[in-house]
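Write out this protein's structure.
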Amino acid sequence: MPKPVPQPDQLSKPFWDAVNQRRLVLQTCTACNRRQYPPEPTCAQCHSATNLEWQPAKEPVRGTIYGYCVMYDSRLIPLHEDQPFNIAVIKLKEDPDIVFLSHLPGTPPDEVPVGGEVELFFEELKLAPGRLIHEWKVVK
């Protein structure tokens, strides 16, 4: 499925730079030890703006499928040819407060194993060769 090309801003650039190196990093507040995704200008817990840094996720990066829906009519034209497709909610195993969305490549629509385990992988973007995006695949 051709996925949109991320347009990093100053806040998200470290995240996308790491993805292009096949690594997952999470914004972490060193004042209160809270991780957050997506990145924010301040810690959502203690509101510190000066204690945020990027730390790697524990490998292998795994998650759990919390829920999903199926997209039948996307407004994004590059996604039309692959409709319908899944949009799964993934909770990170090492920190269930961190949530990602995934199409779950290789999993047919409406066959998403809610509660199942997934593992992170990196996929090259068809619309931007050499650029990567983070995705998830079902492993259990």
